[in-house]
Structure formats: C-alpha cells, structure tokens
C-alpha cells in the first residue's frame, strides 16, 4: 500500500518509480519519530505503518522541528490535525490530506467549469472549489483574429462569448489574494465545450498528467478536469491551424452526431462513473479498459451498481495485466 | 457500521406499567436504562451522494440526517465575510417524525432557535478563517423525534462536517442530562423530557474540555447543577469515542480503497 495517492501513474517512468521508493523509506523513519503516538486500531494491516490515519483534534507530533502544512494547526507547540485523513510528509512539512474534499487547485491545472455569473469584465466559473473561479475578459481569446486588445464593445457583448450555464475548459493561471482562482482560455485547446455530456467525480480521483485532453480509440474525446469535472464528447478532428475563430464561441453542436456516437458517449460516461464509484484513478488507459469491459452489457444496465462494480474490477485487472 | 456502546434499549422487554411515569422499577428508567446510561448510538457518514459531506445518526429512537455543502461560493452577496466563511444552518423536522403528524412552518421559532444553537456551537470550532469569502451550508432533518434533538443535531453536524473535509479544531460532542426523581439522569428521551424535568444540553470539545454550548430552559437548584453538568460532560466524552470510531473507520476505509499508483 502506497502512501501518497497524488503521485502520477507509473506509466513506464522509471525515474519516478525510484524516487517514490525514497519517499517510502522516509515514511518509515517518520513513523518511528511518531512513536509516542497511539497507532489506530487495525494498524497491523498498514504495512510498515505507512498509512497513518488521524481525526480532527488528534496530536500528530509534539516535536517542534516539523512545519505545519494543510489540514493541521499548532496548539501549545503540538501539531494537531484539523481534518480526518492521511498524514503526509515531505521532509519537515507535515500535512493531512482529507480524502473526500472539494478541489484545491494549483497553477497550471486544467479544469472544467460552468459559468455561474457574468459581471463587468469577468465571468465567475464554478470549478468545485471553495469559491467560484474568475475568468477575466482579458484572459480569453477574443474572436476575430490574432492578438488584439479588448475594447469596450467586447465588454458589452460578453454574453456572446460565455453565457450563464455554459461549460468551459480552462487553465488555472493565478491566485487572487483571497485564494480565489484566476483562469485563462488563451489557447485553442481551451474554451467553450460542445457536443458532449458532463459528469462529476471526486477531485482526488483525477491525477495530474501530461495531458488531460484525450481522444479515445472508440471515437470519443474526453477532457479530465483536475477539479473532478469531466467532459465526454463526440470526436472532433482538431487542426489547430485551421480553426475558425468565429466558431470558438458558437453554441451549436455539430450536426452529424449519430445515434452510435451518442451511445458511445453515454457508455464512456457511465464507465467513468463506474470507476469513480469504485474509487479508481481515472485516466485514458483505465477508461479504455472499462469501456471494453462494458461492451458485454447493454447500455441501460450500466447504471446498475453491481454492473458498475464488475466493470471497474475488470478494468483494474486489465491495468494490473498491463503492468505485469 | 453499527456501533453499540451501550446495552440495547430494553423498552420492549420491560414495558412501563400503567401510565407513563418516571418511577423506576429495580432502579431502571422507563426504557430500561440506568441513570448514567446513554441510548444506543448508530452513525454512518457519506450517506448522500450529492452533498459534500453527510451523516445519518440514530440516538436511541431519535433519527437525524445531516448534509453539508461547501465551503462554496457565497449564495447571497450580503453574507460575504471577507476574512472567514459564513456558516448557514437550516433545521427541519419531517412531518412524520413525531407521534402527531404535523407539518411545521419554516418560521417555527423553536426550529430557528435550534439552527441558531448549532451555528453558534460550530462557528468557533470550524477553522473559518482558512475559508475566506466562502459559505458552508448545513442542512439538518429530524426523521424521528424521541427527545434530545439538539444533541443529535450537534453530533450529526460534527460527523457531516468532518465527512466533507471541513477543517475543525476538534469534535463537538453534545449530550443531555436532567434531574429526575431526586437523581441526575443522562440522555433523556421524549417521555422523560415531556414530564416536568429540568434538562440541560451540553456541547463539549473533548480535547480541551471547553464547553461550546450550554442550554437549559427549566429551573434547577444551583446545588444540583454541578452534578448534572458533570454527568452530561461524561456523556459527551462517551459520545466522542463513538463518533471518532465512525470517522476513523470511514477514513481508514477510504485510505485503503483509494488507489495506490504502483
């Protein structure tokens, strides 16, 4: 059992695998440091105590050499947990990772969000965080050609770009002083979402990867937002050189989405929900395996709990096979 | 996730004879408990799929469902607090929760008061300053009313907030105690409450022993206060072990199920 579930998948990355081993060694020595702490019941299952579960108000360590991270606070020189979750340590920084929380972003994250409000010069976007993120008019690609300055007329027609309820994919650009996120869509990868369906899973299940835009082999595009919002859409051939900038903000779906395409989108969506139900990491490989496993069931059975569990188990087995 | 700290309620085995009264038989209360005994507590977290955190709590025959949404964007601009989060508590009782089927108005003063008590006991315990300009919504619904609804509300809210991963200094554990028949008694049920008893609700932070809430509406002789308060505090500590078991089991369960990347 590994300590950190935030580390990226070991898809052939040897360098990463070895560095993770070091982490584990550190955790061993960490649990010795916390020897005074009462180990939780059933901790014998936790191999070498590397999973250390704490609940709010529980003292993690009274050693003053450690620094206070997320999910902890200091009281009378003791480091105390403020959430129920797993203790994580990076050198001298101790944090507690709650397992079921809202999204907490980092700069560079790809997120999927829904416009909740249009105000002067900015949109508010629900990204499953503790505040709505902000998308400034100055941080979107304005239609009508290459880089141009925003004008007053743009401000007046903001609803023609994004309206309340529209779904967008964007990148987290910066934080405001109060911790709110500032987004941008200044790339043709980002922008308004069309031709598909939206699903929401726990943010902890989507890992940071090289790419969050995937075109799956069954002819379905998937955008895995790090905030747990996922967009599953019909395949659209992308040629970044020939995109009509006027079409970027269009509200029209493409016309030729066949019944089969729609069925595939529904199947992929349900597969992702099945993986989420079984708390499995969600990435393009696992989705493909789950999709293949789901083909033996009719589409309408995919909402059944036991079918979902079976699909997720089969996908997990395929992943294990792949890794050998 | 069934937690049985106390003996099963023996009400069914030893029904009260004649009218409802506190007169004990063999030193037992109307539902067969001793004076210092809690009712059976069962609790489950993450019962609702759409809420960020939720909990179902049974305290004897009192049953309650709590849902927590947030921290999220403030719904109404007037509620924005720049340096901390706003906590909103809504309390309701199902029409079928009491012996007499009755729909209660949203403006029922007793219900608003309970919501206010819950809000006041959690505001200093939730680390609100790390969620500036946000809002935490807490929705409480009584499904079955058998006394001690305030204590059940507070305990269920504690579980639901922790399930939602909201940062808190400590647990908030609540318990009632009262004075029945010249003796202090722990955790009164609705029959005991209905008689002319002085009942006290105490919410305690078990780690520091601080009191988050102390509520009493009837008269009680000051000499007896200490004893009743002590009994209720002991009850709070017992409840803490039960709630902690639920939270810890859930966290360990999740920690195991959460995928490892190897």
From TrEMBL, chain A:
Annotated GO CC locations: cytoplasmic exosome (RNase complex); nuclear exosome (RNase complex); nucleolus
Top-level lineage group: Eukaryota
Residue ranges occupied by any K Homology domain in the UniProt entry: 196-234
CDD domains for the chain: KH-I_Rrp4_eukar, S1_Rrp4
SUPFAM superfamilies: Eukaryotic type KH-domain (KH-domain type I), Nucleic acid-binding proteins, Ribosomal L27 protein-like
Biased composition (Basic and acidic residues): 13-23
Entries under InterPro entries matching the protein: Exosome_cplx_N_dom, Exosome_RNA_bind1/RRP40/RRP4, KH_dom_type_1, KH_dom_type_1_sf, NA-bd_OB-fold, S1_RRP4
Region (Disordered): 1-27
RRP4 S1 domain boundaries: 102-173
Localization: Cytoplasm; Nucleus, Nucleolus
Record's keyword terms, sorted: Cytoplasm, Exosome, Nucleus, Phosphoprotein, RNA-binding, rRNA processing
Subunit relationships: Component of the RNA exosome core complex (Exo-9), composed of EXOSC1, EXOSC2, EXOSC3, EXOSC4, EXOSC5, EXOSC6, EXOSC7, EXOSC8 and EXOSC9; within the complex interacts with EXOSC4 and EXOSC7. The catalytically inactive RNA exosome core complex (Exo-9) associates with the catalytic subunit EXOSC10/RRP6. Exo-9 may associate with DIS3 to form the nucleolar exosome complex, or DIS3L to form the cytoplasmic exosome complex. Exo-9 is formed by a hexameric base ring consisting of the heterodimers EXOSC4-EXOSC9, EXOSC5-EXOSC8 and EXOSC6-EXOSC7, and a cap ring consisting of EXOSC1, EXOSC2 and EXOSC3.
Family as reported in the entry's similarity comment: Belongs to the RRP4 family.
Protein name: Exosome complex component RRP4
Species assigned in the record: Actinomortierella ambigua
Gene (UniProt): RRP4
From TrEMBL, chain B:
GO biological-process terms attached to the record: nuclear mRNA surveillance; poly(A)-dependent snoRNA 3'-end processing; rRNA catabolic process; U4 snRNA 3'-end processing
Annotated organism of origin: Actinomortierella ambigua
Subunit relationships: Component of the RNA exosome complex. Specifically part of the catalytically inactive RNA exosome core complex (Exo-9) which may associate with the catalytic subunits RRP6 and DIS3 in cytoplasmic- and nuclear-specific RNA exosome complex forms. Exo-9 is formed by a hexameric base ring of RNase PH domain-containing subunits and a cap ring consisting of CSL4, RRP4 and RRP40.
Name of this protein: Ribosomal RNA-processing protein 41
Top-level taxonomy: Eukaryota, Fungi, Fungi incertae sedis, Mucoromycota, Mortierellomycotina
InterPro entries in UniProt: ExoRNase_PH_dom1 (IPR001247), ExoRNase_PH_dom2 (IPR015847), ExoRNase_PH_dom2_sf (IPR036345), PNPase/RNase_PH_dom_sf (IPR027408), Ribosomal_Su5_D2-typ_SF (IPR020568), RNase_PH (IPR050080)
Subcellular location: Cytoplasm; Nucleus, Nucleolus
Sequence segments annotated as region (Disordered): 1-29
UniProt cross-references to CDD domains, sorted A to Z: RNase_PH_RRP41 (cd11370)
Keyword presence, Membrane: no
Ranges of biased composition (kind: Basic and acidic residues): 1-12
UniProt KW keywords: Cytoplasm, Exosome
Family of the protein in this entry: Belongs to the RNase PH family.
Protein origin, superkingdom: Eukaryota
Domain Exoribonuclease phosphorolytic residue range list: 37-166, 170-234
Chief location category: cytoplasm
Keyword Cytoplasm on entry: yes
Gene Ontology cellular-component terms listed: cytoplasmic exosome (RNase complex); nuclear exosome (RNase complex); nucleolus
Molecular functions (GO terms): RNA binding
């Amino acid at each position: 059992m590994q300590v950190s579930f935030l580390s990226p998948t070991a898809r052939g990355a040897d360098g990463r695998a070895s560095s993770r081993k070091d982490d584990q060694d550190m955790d061993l020595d960490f649990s010795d440091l916390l020897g005074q702490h009462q180990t939780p019941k059933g901790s014998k299952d936790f191999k070498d105590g590397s999973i250390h579960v704490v609940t709010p108000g529980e003292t993690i360590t009274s050693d003053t050499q450690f620094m206070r991270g997320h999910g902890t606070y200091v009281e009378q020189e003791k480091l105390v947990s403020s959430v129920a979750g797993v203790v994580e340590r990076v050198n001298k920084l101790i944090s507690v990772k709650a397992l079921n929380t809202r999204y907490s972003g980092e700069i560079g994250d790809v997120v999927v969000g829904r416009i909740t409000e249009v105000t002067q010069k900015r949109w508010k976007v629900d990204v499953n965080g503790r505040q709505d993120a902000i998308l400034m008019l100055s941080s979107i690609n304005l239609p009508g050609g290459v880089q141009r300055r925003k004008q007053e007329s743009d401000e007046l027609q903001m609803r023609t770009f994004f309206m309340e309820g529209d779904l967008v994919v964007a990148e987290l650009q910066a934080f405001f002083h109060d911790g709110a996120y500032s987004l941008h869509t200044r790339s043709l990868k980002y922008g308004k979402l069309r031709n598909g369906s939206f699903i929401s899973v726990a943010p902890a299940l989507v890992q940071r990867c090289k790419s969050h835009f995937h075109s799956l082999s069954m002819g379905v595009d998937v955008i895995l937002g790090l905030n747990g919002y996922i967009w599953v859409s019909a395949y659209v051939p992308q040629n970044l050189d020939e995109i009509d900038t006027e079409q970027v903000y269009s509200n029209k779906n493409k016309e030729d989405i066949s019944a089969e395409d729609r069925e595939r989108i529904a199947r992929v969506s349900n597969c992702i929900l099945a993986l989420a139900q079984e708390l499995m990491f969600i990435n393009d490989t696992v989705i493909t395996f789950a999709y293949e496993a789901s083909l033996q069931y009719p589409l309408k059975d995919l909402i059944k709990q036991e079918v979902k569990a079976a699909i997720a188990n089969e996908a997990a087995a395929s992943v294990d096979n792949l890794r050998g | 996730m069934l937690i049985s700290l106390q003996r099963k309620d023996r009400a069914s085995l030893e029904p009260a004879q004649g009218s409802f009264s506190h007169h004990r038989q063999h030193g037992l209360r109307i539902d067969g408990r001793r004076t210092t005994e809690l009712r059976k507590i069962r609790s489950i977290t993450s019962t609702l799929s759409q809420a960020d955190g939720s909990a179902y709590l049974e305290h004897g025959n009192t049953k309650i469902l709590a849902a927590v949404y947030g921290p999220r964007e403030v719904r109404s601009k007037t509620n924005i607090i720049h340096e901390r989060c706003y906590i909103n508590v809504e309390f309701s009782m199902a029409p079928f929760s009491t012996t007499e089927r009755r729909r209660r108005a949203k403006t029922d003063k007793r219900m608003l008061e309970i919501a206010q008590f819950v809000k006041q006991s959690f505001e200093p315990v939730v680390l609100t300053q790390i969620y500036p300009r946000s809002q935490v919504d807490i929705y409480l619904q009584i499904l079955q009313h058998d006394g001690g609804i305030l204590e059940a509300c507070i305990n269920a809210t504690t579980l639901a907030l922790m399930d939602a991963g909201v940062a808190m200094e400590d647990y908030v554990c609540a318990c009632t105690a009262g004075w029945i028949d010249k003796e202090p008694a722990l955790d009164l049920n609705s029959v005991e409450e209905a008689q002319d008893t002085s009942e006290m609700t105490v919410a305690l932070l078990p780690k520091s022993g601080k009191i988050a809430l102390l509520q009493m509406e009837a008269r009680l002789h000051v000499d007896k206060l200490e004893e009743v308060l002590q009994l209720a505090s002991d009850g709070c500590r017992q409840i803490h072990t039960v709630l902690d078991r639920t939270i810890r089991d859930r966290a360990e369960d999740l920690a195991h199920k959460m995928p490892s990347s190897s």
